[in-house]
UniProtKB/TrEMBL annotation:
It comes from Nostoc flagelliforme CCNUN1. Keywords: Kinase, Serine/threonine-protein kinase, Transferase. The keyword Ion transport does not apply. One of its GO terms (molecular function) is protein serine/threonine kinase activity. This is Serine/threonine protein kinase.
Amino acid sequence: MKDYQIIQKIYESANSSVYRAIVKPENKPIILKILKENYPTPSELTRYKQEYEVTRSLNTDGVIKAYNLQRYENSLVMFLEDFGGESLKLLMPERQFTLKEFLYIAIKTTESLGLFTLPILYTKILTPLISFIIQKPNNLKSSILVFPPVYHEKIRQLVILND
């Protein structure tokens, strides 16, 4: 990954690590989501490809854009939009949100999930959801970064139904 300079790790799960990086030639910010396994199984690679396809198919303002999926050594790396946001999970202990900011984030997250028509998904997907926001005076943006793998097939079916 010689064309990318990793700035910071922003999230880690059992299966992947998410980094904020810079594309060196263009000095463009990007999010890199990399499988942790050096030698992932075929089923892990398939799941990761499905995650990329699901994220790419959700072409909405409230979901981070998936740009590309490439092989990296013996694994895969996903290239995602970086709009400069910070993890809501990390910001909440550090910062007291005003009522206006809290409502904005809640509304934007709800709007992002608006494409889902199965009510059962709402209660189960919100807990493990990774939401990012950008903090600029009078300019908040909220975007969803990760949908848990257990929901990929349901989301894919909903996207097909909504097309």
